[in-house]
Amino acid sequence: PYxxxxxxxxxxxxxxxxxxxxxxxDGVGDLPGIIEHLDHLSELGVDVIWLSPxxxxxxxxxxxxxxxxxRIDERYGTEEEFDRLLAxxxxxxxxxxxxxxxxxxxxxxxxxxxxxSSRSNVSRDSYFWRGPRRGFAPGEPGGEPNNWxxxxxxxxxxxxxxxxxxxLHLFSPHQPDLNWESTRVRQRVFEMMNWWLDRGIDGFRMxxxxxxxxxxxxxxxxxxxxxxxxxxxxxxxxxxxxxxFIQEMMRAVFAYRDADYLxxxxxxxxxxxxxxxxxxxxxxxLDMVFQFEHMRLDHGPxxxxxxxxxxxxxxxxxxxxxxxxxxxxxxxxxxxxxxxxPRAVSRFGDDxxxxxxxxxxLATLQHMxxxxxxxxxxxxxxxxxxxxxxxxxxxxxxxLAYYGIATRRxxxxxxxxxxxNQVSRDNARTPMQWDDGPNGGFTTGTPWIxxxxxxxxxxxxxxxxxxxxxxxxxxxxxxxxxxxxxxxxGDFELMDPGDPKLFAFRRRFGxxxxxxxxxxSGEPLPVPQYEPRHRLVLGNYSDPGDPEMLRPWEARIHRxx
Length: 561
Ligand code: ISL
What we know:
With 561 residues, the protein is of the alpha/beta class. It contains 16 helices and 22 strands. The protein has three domains: 9-104 and 183-215 and 235-385 and 443-470, Alpha-Beta Barrel (TIM Barrel), CATH 3.20.20.80; 110-168, Oligo-1,6-glucosidase, domain 2 (Alpha-Beta Complex); 489-559, Golgi alpha-mannosidase II (Immunoglobulin-like), CATH 2.60.40. It has an eight-stranded parallel β-sheet, covered by helices on one side. It has a five-stranded antiparallel β-sheet with strand order 16-17-18-22-20. The structure holds 6-O-alpha-D-glucopyranosyl-D-fructose. Residues 61, 64, 101, 151, 171, 207-208, 266, 268, 304, 339-340, 398, 425 line the site of 6-O-alpha-D-glucopyranosyl-D-fructose.
């Protein structure tokens, strides 16, 4: 008989170690801090923990710039503490997957240092080195090999005077891109992955994995309106050899292993058609990918920094498209936030008057879809955007780069602050709020980034014991998934696609059928006539209310059969 993969009813929790729990008092979260709070996660009911990078790193991008892939960064802990964490996770019946950042390394990685040392060294082609554009002298302004901009602002090329060439970095200059055309690069990555799996981890979250294959000629891209640099995406998003590289990786790393692993790819810019290719089990690539369409719904024409409030109807359209596209082949991952995105309740809900209701409604929408849900730390207690009052509270290199660019464009500091408050990645990175003590119980020292001032009201201790507990609601959603094939595997059918406020759908597997009704607004909404009012399985209001009306941000799950 058909055996669905184990992760079809699993729930994953992302730990951003730096901001989770600090036991050493240096203001940076650490591995013993995770160990200390593992019961919080196992009580929540999650099956898998995904750790953002904890490898040795100069931390320009909080660990997404790795200088040694086989060492734990001292700020986070020791090798022994990592092995203890892994054992403690396993002892509680959970799994641990690690970030795999191999589109690029740190510029302090030994391979890059060697690569940069001369034009003729063996590692030179491990990265992308190019001379200046024709007609330019090396290092001359405008002489970059092509016109791509980096994702964090500025050119995607940095000039290296020592060898009079430029190296490519899709992200910051501290994150040079690895050249996957080199078999040596691929071999070394695969060896490193095997080394981690042999150490006992249960899989990987692969950072920017659909960027690893570039069009070899690295051609110029058309320049967008007003921009100085062009978007190189057409030459590196799902590039020519990406499927070949990933299949080769899976053969080299997983072919002879039979344990239960999980491999999820981060694939910004992926289309539904590409996602099917990446996740069709018969192709031997990834188990699931993170798509980004719903993360763009509040981007204006100028992109992420050009914030435009989202229309909830667009969210329905996107969800429906992805649910349908991966229903026969492939598998969805489901997320509303992570360390790169503002807080879900602040972005898609109402983080003020209806914080509990909208946080639990969003959780309902997410966890009742077909796919594997990912919870970002703090979401399970309804943590909100950072609420910073001053620009100097921002830490992320992307926020700081934006600050520089926006200042040069003459945008006022007030506007810049307002934009950062809305869209900056720092919003997700403020420390986990454990209790109402100093620094929310995150550290006894000075936190590397300020704690959200609302920690006195919003914290784990308060939430878990509150009458309206986001945490307990998540527990129930996770329980429901674990026990219901309609939730984990059922068909998805959107109801009332035209209604902008009502997000309603049915899930069906065999003779089990559930209906999910969500009022994505702060006003009461009539319940559609056709909806039979069967047994309520779970809802985010404690009393049944008027069966004909959904209250503000009300979510209900009914069992139809
Ligand atoms: O967060 C973004 C910009 O606002 C995304 O474009 C993000 O950079 C992209 O999804 C890739 O993210 C991953 O790789 C980056 C790292 O900074 C992110 O934290 C990571 O999730 C470079 O390693």
